[in-house]
Amino acid sequence: MGGRNERAKTEGEVQEEKPKTAESELRMRPTALFLNYAPVPLAFGTSGLRGLVKDITDLEAFINVKAALSYLLGIGDIRASSTVVIAGDLRPSTDRIMKACAQAIVDSGFQVENAGKIPTPALVFHAISTGRAGVMVTGSHIPFDRNGIKINKSVGEVLKSDEPGIRREVERVRVEEYSRTATTSAFDASGMLKRSPELPLLDRAAEEAYVRRYLQSFTCGGLSGLRVLVYQHSAVGRDILPRILRELGAEVVTAGRSDTFIPIDTENITDEQLNRLEEFAVAAEARGEPLHAIVSTDGDSDRPLVTAVLPAAEVKPGGRRVRFLPGDLLGIVVAEFLRADAAAVPISANDAVERRMGEREVAFEKTKIGSPYVISALDELRGAGSRQRMVGWEANGGFLTGSDIALNGATLAALPTRDSTLPILANLFSAANRGISLSVLWDRLPARFGRAGLIDNFPVAVSQAILANLISAGDTIEVEFDSAGRVIDRSRPNAISTPIAARLAADWQQRKATLTRFFTSALGFGDIARINVLDGVRIYFNNGDVAHIRPSGNAPQMRLYANSDSQARADEIAELALREPDGILRQMERAFMQGAGRGLVRESR
Fold first, then answer.
1. Which residues have a catalytic role annotated?
2. Which residues contact 348 (CB under 8 A, 6 or more apart)?
3. Is 389's pLDDT higher than 70?
């Protein structure tokens, strides 16, 4: 129920664990006298380093990459003078940052392999296959005024357990670089390299290895008869994906290619974006070339976007031609296509996942949100030794394979990082192999519906105040409120259910009462049946509704995940929570931030 990963920390613990603010860090460390600005350090988010482009100076990128490589060298993950693979997405800031990262690689004594503009999973797959570290410059799905750097070890992603060591190295390298003078530093007063290096010649080995991964493991010609539109926008894999689909037999149409970066968050697909896909479907129909599916990815092509295209006769009055399926449900299809016997999925996923994995007797772990936690859970499942086909996925659809999997007479090598191509192919092949449409295939999934959304520019302090008022003290991850008024600890799967101690039970009852003030019966919510605090606050109501509140791990955003027995109700829950200016989250903001001055936001114990 609660999974093996520890629950989200309460306010005081979060402050201990999170990186310091830029202001506090700069007060505690030497300042570079040659700089004419106040540096803003990059910080780890859910996965990788992220920041505003204006803050990711060449100097800041250099410091973080040099420090990460020093850490990997220190733990024996890479060897001195070895090669580091670098790649990037299509953001306007990526080229400059890639050059600064390459300079850090060279200055650290390593060689640079320039893999070019390729998907993050393509970089990671190649790096693992060749035993190399990798540096991916990408902001994933976030807007173009932000970017990021994602480091991977020779064995896969940097995990949360690696972050403290990397941060220590960052501080060491920062002091080293800040101690230089305007003359001796390689950087000018604005933090930019005085001489920008040229990247080595493009090496397509990573791209070709990624393409072969799928062409060898899926049936050649298996998608014959399918007409698939690839919405290219500014996704870095926009040319690789059509190539793979064509070589597997699909008739591929492309549309929407953009020279301007378009942020696509596959966890937060908007009506505007669906309307764009609808236009593509209608235009294709008008040309006499009806589509079976429209597919795409986010910016660094590690998260899929898949829509079925319905025949005109099946469209309900006022309905769309395109049917979008969220990534957590896409993952169910992929797991079944791969005949998985163990799965790890973040707590934010649609509860249909847990239901379906239970029906299939798949060993199942719920984790905190972020691929590093999913990978850690897969490592634990592998360590148990009883499972052979281990997979994981996130609510954004990014799919991970934690073991080599036999498929179509070949071996689909493990790729323990988010990937978009595998879920796209597995869904198309699952439908094609059965001779049915994607929409019919998806109708066979458990009838649970979800909606995710967010409020942007939601201050971190507000998020912390909300969590502090909703999460009880202690180590309990999940509690159930039974009909006898008891509070039952459901933190450990298959454990004997026992009531928790009276004092803690009273505290949980208070948190339940607090939540009931906002999630009221007047808004259609039932009584609260369970609360899970593994990551954020996930509330289960006795009428089948689920609402999950969680701050973003890498941006000032508050996210809301909703599940229900109908799409209309899931949409309504999201709208009730996210509505401006008087939705549930804004009501919590006013109540708890105003209460802070009166001592209502309590310190964690």
1. 140
2. 328, 369, 394, 395, 452, 535, 536, 538, 548, 550, 559, 561
3. yes
